[in-house]
Every structure is written in C-alpha cells, then in structure tokens.
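Re: beginner question about structure tokens

> Can someone show what the tokenized structure looks like for a real chain? I only ever see the sequence side.

Sure, here's an example I had lying around. Input first:
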Amino acid sequence: MTDSNAEPPIVHILDPMSAAYDAAFATFLAHTDQKIRAREELARIVGRLPHRRTFIDAGAGTGETTAWLEPRFDRTIAIEPNEHLRAELARRCPGATILGQDIATAEPQETADLVLCAHVLYYVPQQTWLGQLQRLASWTAEGGFAVVVMQNPDSDCMRLLRRFTGHRYDLDALGRAFAATAGTEWEIGISTDPASVTMPDLETALAVAQFMLNVVPLPEPPAMDEVAAYLQENFRTPDGYRLSCDQDFLELRRNGPDA
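And the corresponding structure tokens:
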C-alpha cells in the first residue's frame, strides 16, 4: 500500500567526491556530444600553439580528454582532487604527472603551452573565479593558451539549473574581469560551440537533470516530479528528450610582455 502522506521524492544531493556522482557524470557523458564537439575546438587551439612542450589539465576528471590531448605534447600534468576520478585518470594516462590537489593549492613545477580547465568552475564559489583564472594564467607559458570551458548560460541545461536554483554562470563576465586586471601581454577571446544531450526516456532525462542540478549546493532540493514536469513541458521530443548544452570557450593567449 502506498503511503499517501509520504513526501514526494526529491533530487538527490550528490557529493562531487563520491562514486554516485561519478555514475551520474557517466550517464551524462553517454548521452551527449559535448566531448566530441569540445575536441574539435581544442584541436583548433592546439593547432595555433608555437610549441607543444607541456599540457596542464586542471580538473582532469577521469582523463578522457587528457588522454586524447596527451600524445600531442611532450609532457602532461593532470590536476584532479577527486580520488574516485583519479584512479581512472591514472589508468588512462599512465605517463602523466598527476597532482591530487585543486587549482587553488596545486603547484605544477613548470609552465605549459596549454592550460585547460573544462567544466570545473561550477564547483567553486564564484567570488573565487577571478583568482582561479589568474592562477591558471600564471601556469601558462609565453605563446601558450589558458582555456576555460563552461556551458553557455543560455543553454537548455543552464536554463534548467536557473529554473530550480537561481544560479547563472557567465564566462564572458569572467573574461572581462580578467582583462581589467591583466597586462598587455594577454589576448582574450570567447566563443560558443553548440552541443546537446539526447536521452531516450524520462528516467534517463531525470538522471541527467539531477547531475546538472548538483553542480551547485542544493540546500532545498526540488521535487523530482517538478523536474519531470519541466522536462516534459520543455524538452520532450518524438524520440525522447533533448537539451542543448552549448559550451563557451574562454581563451587567454599569453603573448609576452613586449607583444
């Protein structure tokens, strides 16, 4: 018998350092072309590098992108504080130097021609973003790029986040803040690359939505039936569910003090 007085199920709070979070992340990755589209953009950036000596992946996760970029550089340094993700990272990138700290505390021993920070800043307080970006920039060699990737604030996935949490992320504003403090050696640009996440049924769509909602603290998690209704009303297709997850690429190029 169903308890009519029972509270409706709510979105689960996922610890980013937990195996449950890793499983939710894997569900998202299995249904999106975001990684593929990101690789196309990163290949373009790598093609513009004058040197390919060292690559730093700040927030490397399981190392899927790290492993794809690693052969293009002489040396790879992967920064990943999540021990669950680090195990897979080490398996995929046995030749990389792996640092178990976060961006604020890691100390790479050399500068890099490419410093990548993809889909990481959601998980740190926004008031620290400029300091985090300045730290990434400090690891960038002359002629190299620091690249930060996040979802575009107007993508469907970020609309979902804003609908239930009120949070909005904007890399363009971060780039302007960096420009206001940076020297003339930096060229700063931002571009948007389309991507989507396509799911066959509501159960999978709810799993992806739950992952998206957990990029911010959830002191009052929404009810799952409210999230389901929002998905059904806005993102249902004849074949399932589809949300855009377009990515913004903030590119900082270090030209040197005399550029």
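Each token stands for a local structural state, so reading them left to right follows the chain. The chain has nine helices and ten strands.
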